[in-house]
What does this fold into?
Amino acid sequence: AYIDLPDSKPKQIKETAQPTKNRRLNNTQTYSKTYKYPIGTTISLNSADTTELKKIPKIGSYTASKICRYRERLGGFYTIKQLAEIDLEPAYFEKWFKIDSQSVIKRDINKLDFKELLRHPYMSYEQVKTFFNYKRKHGDIRSFKQLQLLDNFEKSDLERLSIYFFCQ
It folds into this structure.
């Protein structure tokens, strides 16, 4: 059970199509290195776009868009500690971000529909359902203390919600 190999070298196949300069340029991609801010630079977490966020060390495209999407759903960050809610390390990012609490968007909770309220990260489905059942029976709420009497709302929940919502 041996294999016989020929002694001669195989014939070389001649390439007839030589790549042109244009073809080479189209096939190569160049990636520019992303500029990162030096230590000591701080930016506003509530107004930075993804391009600016990517200039912070440890933030790439995915993380930058994740921050922006969460910020939009919240209505703005009121503390850097909220970054932990999207699996980021607030302790690391404290030196890079500043918070402008004036830029947090407050909305009238009585004017939102079910889907809009459910989209907020601090409202569970059960809480939204309880809220709308209460509102249907008793009308618009005038104070978050009214919700405190309901089973699905803890005092800590209402404190967080009062940052983003108001009632008239």
About this structure: DSSP finds eight helices and four strands in the chain. The chain has a mean pLDDT of 87.
